[in-house]
Design a protein that fits this description.
single chain, 130 residues, alpha+beta, 5-stranded mixed β-sheet, 5 strands
Length: 130
C-alpha cells in the first residue's frame, strides 16, 4: 500500500474529474460533490435557476472511502432538497451519477484507494460504474 494520500492531492485529483467537486464544502477526510443534471426552466436568471440532480458525500479512512448520495432538487437559493426526481428526468440524473461514479472509481484506483457504499446505501441505491 502506498503512503497516505494527502488532502491537497485528493482535492487536485477530484477537481480534475470535472465540475463536481464542491471544494468549499470539503474538509480533510470528507469530500462533497454534486451535479445539476436537468434544468427545470431556462427562463430565470442563471443564478436563480433550479435543477434536478444529485449530491454525494465521500468519507475517507486512510485508503478506504465510503460514499452516500441523494437524488433531489437544487432550488433557486442554491440549497439541495430531498425531493423525488420526476420520472421523466430520472434516467438523466442517474446517467450523470453513474458517469461521475466511474470517473471517481478510476481516479481512486490510480491512487490505490478502495471505494464502497456507506451503510445507509442499500443495494438498490448502490451506484455502478457500468
Amino acid at each position: 500500500m502506498s503512503e497516505r494520500v494527502t488532502y491537497k492531492r485528493l482535492l487536485r485529483q477530484f477537481a480534475a474529474i470535472g465540475p463536481y467537486l464542491r471544494e468549499d464544502l470539503c474538509e480533510e477526510g470528507r469530500y462533497r460533490f454534486d451535479c445539476l443534471s436537468v434544468c427545470v426552466s431556462a427562463k430565470p436568471a442563471p443564478d436563480k435557476r433550479e435543477f434536478w440532480g444529485w449530491w454525494l458525500v465521500l468519507e475517507q479512512d486512510d485508503h478506504h472511502f465510503r460514499y452516500h448520495y441523494q437524488l433531489g432538487f437544487y432550488d433557486a437559493d442554491g440549497v439541495w432538497l430531498d425531493k423525488s426526481v420526476p420520472k421523466k428526468h430520472q434516467a438523466e440524473v442517474e446517467r450523470t451519477l453513474n458517469h461521475f461514479y466511474k470517473l471517481l472509481v478510476d481516479r481512486l484506483t490510480v491512487l490505490e484507494c478502495h471505494l464502497e457504499p456507506a451503510e445507509q446505501v442499500t443495494n438498490e441505491l448502490a451506484v455502478t460504474a457500468a
